[in-house]
Structure formats: structure tokens, C-alpha cells
Amino acid sequence: MRVFVSVDMEGVAGIVDWEQCRAPGTAYEEGRRLLVAEVNAAIDGALAGGATDILVNDAHSVMRNLPPGELHGRASYLAGSHKPLYMMEGLDDSFGAVLYVGYHGSMGSAGVLSHTYNPRAVHQVRIGGTVAGESGLNALVAAAYGVPVVLVTGDQTVGPEAAPFCPGIEAVQVKRAVSRFAAESLHPDRACELVRDGAERAVAKAADTEAPSFGDEVVVEVDWRTADQATMAAWVGGSVEGRTTTITGRDPLAVYQTFVTQVLLTRGVAE
Length: 271
Ligand SMILES: [Zn+2]
Fold this sequence. Notes:
- Helices cover 29% and strands 24% of the residues.
- It has 271 residues and is an alpha/beta fold.
- Helix 1 (26-48) links the parallel strand 1 and strand 2.
- It is globular and about 50 Å long.
- It binds zinc ion (ZN).
- Zinc ion binds next to loops.
């Protein structure tokens, strides 16, 4: 079975500050070490659970955070910017499972380093009326290809946020957010043990896990921080009212692509 790993960074045990997530610097180097250890734990677990082939898509910031030669399991590494499917680039219907590693809560959640794609622009996203973090948004791509999302790792907020969109998802909590910039983390070795075991369990039951489904019509509402951002976002599709845009469509992939294009576009709007 082919397994797709979407790797973020803010949800990794020991990470509590943007400095650990942004190059350059010693804090970032420390963050990368913690990150690659958890990714490798997930790869080891996936292999034990029946994976035969693994693709790691780097989904954080500049999207080249991992030392390529350090990935276990001879996993392929999809890195770098300008990826049309962004955090889910590389996924297609040849895969049997998606793993989310190092994920974080949505903007507005009680999670550490919480945000939804862009903390400077996106205030809240709802899919079908339910608040969605990146786990829910990225599930649109998994739904399009019919691939179950079987694992999410991060703080205590990521499991409950993913659950409404990813049936049967296994959640591994590696830290407890105390505030947006404080968390109590497991020791990295313990965190890796839990990630490994969770990945093994999740991949082993992937064939019996349903892919996300959004019904006949997907409705994604985005509350932007400013009306300017909302107006600009709607240039590429959807309707706008005040600070809220609404994207509606039958194809979850097209809806996702409109959303990520909106996010890219709004990076250019002054706050
Ligand atoms: Zn990130």
C-alpha cells in the first residue's frame, strides 16, 4: 500500500514558538531535528502497518524543512514551493492512506501556534458549517481521490478538529497546549514511540477506513481578517459578503484549489 505523509511542523513535541519553525537560526535547527524524528517514527510505523511505498510531502512554510537523506524507509520527499495542491501535493488515487504529522489547531482553537493556512489573513474556515482547520481543508483533496486520512499528530486540539471530516481517524497527542505559545510536551523519544505506534495501527486498518466525503455539494466559508482580504479573495471565485467569502462546488478538489489560491492572493494585501 502506498502511504502519503503530509508534514507540518507546529504540532511536533517540543515546538512552541515560531522561531523553532522558521529558518534560519539555532532554534529552527532544533525544530528540524524534532520534526524529522517524528516523521521517521511515522514512516517506521507505516511500514510496520503494511505500507510498501511512502511519499512525504513537506507542507510547512518554505516546504523544505527535512534533510532528504535522513528520511527512513527510503521514502520519497516532495519539497519546495509552488505546489498546486500545496499541503496535499502528490496525493492521487494510487495511495491507500494519508497521515498528517506535526499538525496544529485552527486559528481560534486553543492549540499551540494555532492558525489556518495564514494567521495574518484567515480568521475562521467552516466546511458545511463546521469549523475546519488545515486537517479538514486538506481532507477535501483526500475526498477527491477517495483516500482515507487515518492519522493526525499534534496537541490536544488536532484530533477533535479532524474527526468531523476524517472518519475513523487515529489521533496521537504529543503535547498539551497551555496557551498559543506554551505547551507541555512529551519527551521527544516518547512522542516518537506514540507516533510510530499510532501510524502502525492507523495504516493497518486503512483498508477498512472510509475516505472523507463532503456530499454532493461542498460549501467552504472563510472569514478573513479584513474586508479587503475578503474582496481580493473573491477575485478568483466564490461570493463575498463583508469579511466572509463562500466557495461552493461539487468537486472538492476544485474547491480546495480555489481556497489555496485565495490564500496565496491575500498574502499581498496590506494589513
Ligand atoms: Zn506549518
